[in-house]
Batch of 4 targets.
Target 1
Amino acid sequence: MTELILDVRDRPRPGLCLWTAGSRLVLTQGGDPLLLAVVDRGDFGVDFHRTAAPLPLLPPLRAATAEAYADRPERWAHRFAQLLTADPDGPLHDGRWLLTSATEPQWNRHGLGPAAFWRELVVEGHPDGYIDWFIHNGSWELLPLRPLPAPGDARVKAYRKQARAGILPPVLLWWVSGLDCYVVLDGHARLAAALAEDVEPSVLILRRTVPRDERERGEAEAAADYEAELARYSALMARHGPAVPDGAEIAGGILARRLEELRTGSRPSWAWPLPGGEQAWHRIVRDLSTSTDTGLRSWAAQWGA
């Protein structure tokens, strides 16, 4: 398993930013709307409409690099981290982040093969679609920011060769708790190639982890609790004799688990209040539907925009 901590400073707001206005959301990049969304009234899911394709966050990944990294796939995490921290158009903002290859446990309830299982997780529909929180509750779906290319696409064909060779670079995912799913940041063609070749895609997940101040406070509390527990066992030993354990094994295990949670524990993603609230959200919808995205009108009509 690969884990890499990113400590981001001096970036109060990301270039790829999620804004909220009540049950309405808009994902922007550099101020331009990419995705409009509404949480349905029963909290069963999210209706969305893609309004534009995102700017690429990573440069093209060359076959020579994939071959060079074949024996040490963890090098992809360092490469992705370096590129993400240098790119102002990505989702990183102040705080601690984890880039990890570990995915949440997922229940393959139908016993599907790799391609069918992962294809079931991909949110379909373009430009409109629906992130399902009911049937797919706990499945952690994958929301592409652009439609996946077809299996015969030139880029997909090139990546399919790498998939067959076992050197396909990972797909970069971003955990967005407000959507309760992973957003595909980079690797749409690589994901399509893995599905076409019926192999499980390699992934790297970017998510927020425990903030610095919370970690420092938690570590101090964990150390104090550990010392207090050892002192309690010492008092018991003095009273009842050597039959009482010294408590180091029990207290040490608890301390180790607490410290690991403080190092890499998951935290909700951030969203920013949309200035102007719901009226501003509706104004964005109207402006887009009358200018560049006429197909947005019918979708927007459902939400009174």
Target 2
Amino acid sequence: MPHSTDPYEDDDLDDLPDTHPPQPVRYAEQALLGALLLDPHRLSDVTGIAADAFSTAAHAALFAAISTLPPPDPVEHAKSTDWLNQVLATGRERARGLTASYLHTLIQVCPWPRHAPAYARMVEAERARRRLQSAAEHLVQTVHDTSVPHPVQTVLAKADAVAAVVDDIASRFPPRAGVLPRTAAPPPATAPDYAEAVEEEQLLLATATAHPADIESVRWLLPDDFHLPLHAGLWQCLTALGRRHEPVDPVTVLWEAQQRGLLDDGSEPGEVLRMLANPAGSVEHWGERALQRSLLATADYTGRRIEAYAGDPANTPFQLVVGARRSLADIGAVRTRWQHATGTVPTPRPRPAATTRAGPPTTTAAHTARAARATR
């Protein structure tokens, strides 16, 4: 079978055989490397990325070689391949599959070397998407890791790691209007300990019915923290009766549930009465258990939603920032209630320092205009 003559389909450097067509970022990487091989002095125009920004080991090795070797004299470079040979030799130390023909292919497929900053911006944007996707995956994995001794603290630390990645992406890419991701959110997942969660919620409701004065101590618990809609509704009944200073017992709670239409789903009144008549333990204990499950479930859903955003290449870096921050806000809300429940003092998360973006430097004109408007 004859080989393709399309230079964009040079597969000599594939790390592993792959039947999938290359993604657009592959061509952006090739164009950037070709520009730097043709005009090495353009490396000074490319900021904000490093070798780990590239999607293949071969491309990363080439960029590292270009970045570390002294640039050649432009006149000499136009007449000699000595510097290209040095790049090839250095790159082969990290990627043995590099060939001289591939370097010439990269030069050939670069449309315009002067567009190197734009190509670098594309590479940086794709790396941002990969970083966010990886951080979200680690968050979800941690939620489901039953070997973690302190699940809440560990999950919140992973959530902070996701937020740090989001902050870094935001510092590298300017905001734009109308940037909400259009990626469909994943459906909520069923808790792996569903039966245990339902049983503990029943104990919470029964214990709160037996000791209604203790409901005030768990004001941080919300109906959304319950797995079953019936349980969430019964909790609303309990809190409503308490606010109105009305008697609280299984019968009064059942009557309130009927008034709210909670029995319309087919729930048997006798079953509700039996559930509310078996208290055990303390309201605060069961409430904290319910809140912990709610926090972990929120973290799981947040992580999977951010994974979905980052897995959609149609989303721009700032769309990822907006979508991820909105998702992380859900964890922040539950986290605040958890801190109230457990009496823990939050540790401020450090904000990242400003980073240099790939591309041409920003002019001061826009900053001056904003400052002038602010003083009016």
Target 3
Amino acid sequence: MTTGTQEPVRTRLWRQGRLAATDFPLAEVSDYLEEDGALVWLDLCDPDHAQLCELAEELTLDQHAVEDVLAHAERTKATRYAHHTFLTVYATRLTVDAPPDSLGSRLHTSRVSVFVLPRGIVTVRRADAGSAGFDMEEVLRRWDDNSDLLQHGTAALLHGLLDVIVDGQFDAIQSLDDTIEDLEEGLFDDRAQTRVIQRHTYRARKELVELRRVVLPMREVVTAVMRHREEHGNSVALDGWYADLYDHVIRATEWTESLRDMVTTVFETNLSLQDARLNTVMKKLTGWAAIIAVPTAVTGWYGQNVPYPGFGHNGGVVSSAVVIVGAAALLYVVFKRRGWL
């Protein structure tokens, strides 16, 4: 998912797979959708309720689908209505320049709602808080690079859009995989701070939960689109493209499942290593306590005492107090550096 300047309304028209017009008025969309051999794309970025209702009335869009576009936190899905198919998908992006001590999620999602019509598609893009939204430039580039496929209608447009979104999800999964691998390496680094590893592990688990919520349902979405194509006898020229897209979705699903196992293993291993380190510290402290206890017990039993430097003078009390405080401070620093305190 990339970010950039978002235009509120964009339109394109193809005839027989060739680009015929761009950025034509919104009022002409319905006319082109009635034209044989025409293929139309209409894109709306953060439209208001009135604009969507007006468009729904003009293009005969189902009101339930319009409500889903306006609803918050709508799940990934594909729904078939009488005159069109409605999709809700999410583009993802994982930032790697977040503050290291931040517990906030680095995953940014942007919702893309798609109305699939017989001779075109309508995309409605909305961004979550803190995200600039999904940029359609990469989708347009793929449509231009594979312009020969556009003669096969809306299925070609829909494939290009879904392919870009799935690739963006792959990038997010890869970044999260790298993050978890770094956590695994830090587990056995004696110089690593346990608190930092805990914070990063918690953040990775949080991001993975959010990512799985939008990635796993993509399998159902692509399956529904492929089933719709089969029922309407679409050209077999796109079968290979959709098979490849479905394979990518399956791989993304399996990858997220393996990451869940990995981050769980990191979390449990970190707890086990903390217990092991604590046992080691307790053994060392117990050993030194036993060593020191022997002379302390002997001298205490026999009541042995000898005059120390400054014995019987005020300076002796001060010097002994300095030795006690200095020794305690030295032990505190040593224990703190080793992570015992």
Target 4
Amino acid sequence: MDGSGDRPKIDTTVPHVARIWNYWLGGKDNYEVDQQVGDEITRMLPTVPVLARASRQFLNRAVSHLAGEAGVRQFLDIGTGLPTVDNTHEVAQRLAPDARIVYVDNDPLVLTHAQAMLTSTEEGACDYIDADLRNPEYILENAARTLDFDRPVALMLMGILEFITDDEEAYRIVDHLVGALAPGSYLVMYDGTNVIHGEASDRIVEVWNESGNAPLVLRSPEQIARFFKGLDILEPGLVPVSQWRPDPNPFGEPEAVDAYGAVGRKP
């Protein structure tokens, strides 16, 4: 429950962001209506699946750094989406088996899969909260069953804030969540932009918003940077997620994608 009424049934007639994202990542937990919208968007901008994969790799690298080098043992992942390869708890617990992870989403299909697949190590913990990002106090209250907010927590907001279309509301939500975290905590987030592909990205948003899906908005890097106000941003700063500490490869720097992200530490 998210404190706002009964959980809706899974609607297979309306495309859903988590299922479309799953489709782009090569998953099987999606329906024909999701595939149709996913294919329409890909025809307009063939690099969209590249963005989907780059965002997942950004999560992997950020969590690896935090659980490994930074010593973080608690993660609050809001807007989890459907479980795929290398979910937050899998990445964190490979490096720190005692890591504790709380996932938050409000999609009934995600909930069903999360209960079956998001299982923890014996040393750590893994919990799931059925809640909406717009209710941060409810999230914090329930996450406290698993996480100790007197100790550092990594707050993960991966591509979810673009669905809070009012900028001031989005900033208030993040400020509320970060304000509840102990010093030494981290914010890891990215948001969609139109910096790289311009009008093509804008047109994709129009198609997305007309599809019956949850509406979204693109933000400029300057607007995204506002979410990190008061935090110490780790190198290399706010960049396309594909270019945040990429793994070495012989082909040079990865292609930039229309999603900018960063990792910030709370002093």
